[in-house]
Design goal:
Two copies of one chain form a homodimer. Chain A is of the alpha/beta class. Helices cover 35% and strands 18% of the residues of chain A. The first copy, chain A, contains 13 helices and 13 strands. In chain A, the strands form three sheets. A seven-stranded mixed beta sheet of chain A has the order 3-2-1-4-5-10-11, sandwiched between helices. In chain A, strands 7-8-6-9 form a four-stranded parallel beta sheet, with helices on both faces. The first copy, chain A, has a two-stranded antiparallel sheet with strand order 12-13. The longest helix of chain A has 20 residues. Chain A is elongated, with a radius of gyration of 23 Å.
């Protein structure tokens, strides 16, 4: 007998989370085992507060809307940062909400924390012999999930960083003066995004000249001498640094600013902004710090086609697995070959990914600690390939309408 | 009898200056009156230092290279910021260099300062009865040139700003908390780029909620109360502010308004960063400042097709005019109609543009001083239309090789 499904999104946005949502919806619409498709607005928090959207009504027989969903960045259903409290009361409330909507299949698209939610909820449901399949769908620009070759969302952010470095390299190449550009990439503990800037390099481009990841203790002195050495060779030196670089005592470089505000509190500047001051003081040439910030995770106008395709397939695979009876798993992929690039989709116990963090292997970082090896390049290269067709209107990408979220958000006014 | 031509680029980069270069080269290659095509590497400074590139050899019978030049951002020939000293000695040196290369046609692609160079040089050459035609080709992301409906480079930067605002709007829409995003657009005295963020708005998007231009004196108190009012209505408020906003005494809001470049222009950075602190202190909600900085002028992966086409045509029109005997002019365009959007190309005395600045008409700014009118929207809309075919390779735009500039730059080591 057919049951309903519910799906939600959680954590930080990426350019392709909605492609996973589109893949799940598309498969579910064709699936006899699934009757109605519901969305949790603002994730598990929305479920608890009965903030539910009828996705069947919104997307059925609307192929162009579903197509635009695929290339709309961030999250059509909104997000939350909600950690299950582990109280029976909370689980009972969740289950009673799921029963109210006659849910047989529960899907959650997210990163480590969201996989933790999937893990805990699926265990509670199994323990209590409730017939609901709980399946995770991975996403995160940080690429730090265990149990997957690379996470959906990472490739598009990686492409953005490589693009930004290339554009900056062309911008600065025109000047006949010594200059340093410091580009700060996201990544608190894992340097995957900073590393991906290496994709800018080819037979015509040497930038980025230096890459610093949080996996290697960061020395400001070495950073300065590295730059000085590169300035001997090039007029324009481009440096990519992870926001999360730390000194040998584990202290964030971004926390080393000695500026104080009017109350005498130490002001935490960005890592790039702090290092800009260091270069100004110790080298004295022209220096700019660029912090693409959220632009790197929400660049819906320039995603990787490989990323969109994989995100969509992972949405589909999750629904297929749930309908086949799996629970407590997440959809994932392994790389079968690099040339040609092929992947294989499967499911993995979600406990593998819950709250774990995959950092860059140390052997993919050069001995000098300021660059990545060719193994990293080979790993990254296929991920950013392919330019998707983005629907445009009046010169801008034509995304789906998410303005309904603002009404929803009124509920959470603070 | 056929003569040679020389062309240079000057000032700050845009996404489409090379399209003007491509348009000029393409026309000159077919033109009987022009024998050889030379490039000044690093503008007039390169000419003085005999840093010359043979463009005929580089681009003749290379249609795919010329095509990639069209969509390569920044400047293939490099830039300089060189102000003519007005000494006869300097003019004589320039003319002797031009005679050395048997130049009959001199072209300079640039903004106000470059048009000043064209103006002075053409006057000196005319006064001394030298047979060299001197013609300007306009460019600037700031859109502040007089004597032209809008400048090449502006439309692509405008598109970038509108895109950034839209992507940020989708990124922040997912959260159920009050937040303010402040996006700082380039523009010292003219608010055209900040104004162009209005293009993000359509039936599905209300962002940006507030727009501040340097044409209207900026009040920090009003800024705070404007944001407070918008936060009553929306959870997420997106504000676009020109880097050049000033208080009623003409003092830049930017925290560091005391550095000047060699033209005496005050160097600005940190308007958004300063206003972020203001919002944190006086409103206390989550706030982010985004400064796309050079990314907005070098976004070669997402130019406007209209912009590329017009930039290219203005290169062609300049060469055509010079060959027809014009000098002391620049190629320009006027808008003939908006629906359908059509323009007409012609030439204008370069003195009209030299050192003048076109700011936003006050009647295109709303009474409230924090938004633009529909006249501005109608003016901007056609400019960002059209998505060009960008050649891609391995997932990134395949620009022309400019690494030769680095060797050239060694000469100017400082």
């Amino acid at each position: 007998m057919a049951k309903n499904m519910i799906i939600g999104q959680s954590g930080g946005p990426t350019a392709v989370i909605n492609a996973s949502l589109a893949g799940a919806i598309e498969y579910a619409l064709e699936c006899n085992e699934i009757e109605n498709i519901y969305g949790m607005v603002h994730g598990i928090q929305g479920l608890l507060e009965d903030n539910i959207k009828d996705l069947s009504a919104h997307f059925a027989n609307r192929p162009s809307r579903l197509n635009r969903l695929r290339t709309t960045p961030a999250m059509f259903l909104g997000s939350c940062r909600f950690k299950l409290s582990n109280s029976d009361e909370e689980y009972e409330k969740i289950v009673s909400q799921l029963e109210k909507y006659d849910i047989g299949y529960f899907f959650y698209i997210g990163g480590n924390d969201s996989m933790d939610t999937v893990d805990k909820l699926s265990k509670y449901i199994a323990k209590n012999n409730i017939d609901i399949k709980v399946v995770g769908i991975p996403k995160t620009i940080d690429n730090d999930l265990m149990g997957i070759d690379h996470t959906p969302g990472f490739a598009s952010a990686a492409k953005y960083i490589a693009l930004a470095v290339r554009n900056v390299a062309y911008d600065t190449a025109i000047y006949s003066i010594k200059s340093v550009h410091i580009i700060e990439a996201m990544g608190r503990n894992a340097g995957w995004l900073a590393a991906s800037s290496v994709l800018c390099r080819d037979s015509k481009n040497v930038a980025p000249h230096l890459i610093y990841l949080p996996e290697i203790p960061f020395s400001v002195d070495k950073f300065v001498s590295d730059i000085k050495a590169k300035l001997e060779e090039y007029n324009s030196v481009i440096v990519v640094v992870s926001e999360g670089v730390r000194d040998e005592n584990g202290k964030y470089i971004s926390a080393r600013g000695d500026k104080v505000d009017k109350f005498g509190h130490i002001m935490l500047s960005g890592t790039g902004a702090y290092l800009k001051e260091v270069v100004e003081e110790q080298i004295g040439c022209k220096v700019r710090a660029l912090e693409p910030s959220v632009l790197q995770r929400s660049a819906g106008h320039t995603p990787s086609l490989t990323d969109i395709t994989e995100a969509q397939n992972l949405g589909l695979v999750a629904v297929k697995a749930a309908v086949a009876g799996e629970s407590g798993v997440f959809s994932t992929l392994r790389r079968v070959s690099n040339k040609p690039y092929t992947v294989e989709y499967y499911t993995e116990r979600v406990s593998v990914a819950a709250n774990a963090e995959k950092t860059v292997p140390l052997e993919w970082i050069t001995q000098s600690g300021n660059d990545v090896t060719n193994d990293m390049v080979e790993y990254l290269k296929p991920l950013v390939r392919g330019v998707p067709q983005i629907p445009y209107r009046d010169g801008l990408p034509d995304y789906v309408n998410v303005s309904y979220l603002d009404k929803a958000k009124q509920k959470y006014k603070n």
